[in-house]
Amino acid sequence: MTHLRILLVEDDPNWQKILDSKIHSALEGIGHSEDTIKLVKTFAEAYDILQKSHWHLLVTDIGLKDSSISRRQKLGVQLVELASQQRIPVIVVSGTPVVNTQDIRDFFKEHDVSDYFKKGTFDNKNFIKAVQAVLQKQLQTLSTTKEIFHTFHGDLNQQYTIKLFGEQRKKLQEALIHAFPSLALLEQMLSFELNKNLDTIAAKNDLKDVVFNLIKTAEAQGWVEELVRAARESNPGNLSLQAIAQELLPNHQVTPSVKDKF
């Protein structure tokens, strides 16, 4: 099952609770209650996260404690622009007065914002429906992509099972340790990207031993490619991961570094 990842950007504590609760309800309604909702409170952290990893939906405020009048200077607008560039669907929830102008509505259309909700007239049910509509479309797209790939290339596990040689195994181990230098970071990557529990794969001892056992398990069960892709997606700027991915993965491309309804 695809593990959905939703990024929620909101600086107001009360609205953080409201939106987190409603997104959870939306996920439960489509059978994905255990999927990831990442709450971010600041523009800088949100922008960094959007640059470094992929999300199935961005739910964001526009103001984010930004007092500027121009909509083009609003911090949330910059997040919408970045998400649009990365083809991540966006739902805006905002109490910022400037959002009510025709200018910002045109901007939303231009960047394919899926929906917009005013905090002053926020509708719980319609918001949940909007989140579910976006995520179900994402799931359908992902399912169709997999079916097309299997039609032309056969079963993923059979067609592209990676067999590691000794030196490749060592390079992959070193790359994973370099990209995820703590057990906590490694555990989060496996959970967020692959929906796997590190505790069931390797005993939590020395990081080097844990990564070695992780690679052994992935080899034995045929998901080395998934592991490499997940690690690269979680930390796309890591040069060690890029190097081993380029060596192991078919068609790998090096990731460039990156600085109602209306």
Concise account of the structure shown:
By secondary structure, the chain is of the alpha/beta class. The chain contains eleven helices and five strands. The longest helix has 30 residues, at 124-153.
Give the topology.
Layout: E1 5-9, H1 13-29, E2 36-40, H2 43-52, E3 57-60, H3 75-85, E4 90-94, H4 102-110, E5 115-118, H5 124-153, H6 156-159, H7 166-179, H8 183-194, H9 207-221, H10 224-234, H11 239-248
Question: Your description of this structure?
Answer:
The protein is α/β, with parallel strands linked by helices. It has two domains: 5-151, Response regulator (Rossmann fold); 166-248. It is built from eleven helices and five strands. The protein has a five-stranded parallel β-sheet, sandwiched between helices. Strand 3 (57-60), helix 3 (75-85) and strand 4 form a beta-alpha-beta unit. Helix 1 crosses helix 5 and helix 2 (43-52) runs parallel beside helix 3 (75-85).
Output the keywords.
single chain; 262 residues; alpha/beta; Rossmann fold; 2 domains; five-stranded parallel β-sheet; 5 strands; 9% strand; elongated; disordered C terminus
